[in-house]
Amino acid sequence: MHSFSSTISIRRETSKSNQKWSPSPEGSTLVNVEATILFQSVRAGFVVAICDHQGRIHATNRGYFERVQIPEVAQDMALHQGLILANNTGIRKIMIVSNCLSLINKVKGLCFDRLLVGAIVHDIGKCVTKFVSCTFIHVSRACNEATHVLSKSA
C-alpha cells in the first residue's frame, strides 16, 4: 500500500508538513487532481495529471468550470474529470490523489452529503466501478503544488 505521512493542523494553509510527492507503486497509476477558485472570473480552474510508477506523465487535462465558487464542489468536479480521463486512457488500476480531505472522506464513504457535493460523489461512485482497483489518498498541498499552480492558469 502506498502511504503518506503528514502532520495534523486545523487549517491546511498553516500546516507544516514533511510529506513529499512520490509515485504510485508499480502496477498502479497515480491520478493527481486539483481545483482552484478563480474569484476574478467566477470560475474554478482544474488540472488532472496521470503518472506511472516511475513518475512519467501519461496524460493531462486542464480546464475550468463556469460559475463554480465553492472549493469543495470544484475539487469534486476535478476528481470526476480525473476518473473520466483515466477511463478514457484505458487505465484500470488507479490511485486518486487530492489535497481536499473532506472530499476524500466522502468518496471513501466516511461521511455523507445530501447537497450538491453528495450528487457529484454519487457520480464518482458510479465511475469507480469501471476500474479494477481505485484507491483515494489525501496528500498535503505541498505534494500537489504543481497541479495547484497549473489549475490557477486554467
TrEMBL record:
List, as start-end ranges, the regions of compositional bias called Polar residues: 16-27
UniProt-listed CDD domains:
RNase_H_like (cd06222)
Q: Where is this region: Disordered?
A: 1-27
Domain RNase H type-1: where?
32-154
The protein's name: RNase H type-1 domain-containing protein
A GO molecular-function descriptor: nucleic acid binding
Which InterPro entries does UniProt cross-reference here? Answer: RNase_H-like_dom_plant (IPR044730), RNase_H-like_EbsB-rel (IPR052929), RNaseH_domain (IPR002156), RNaseH_sf (IPR036397)
Signal sequence annotation: none
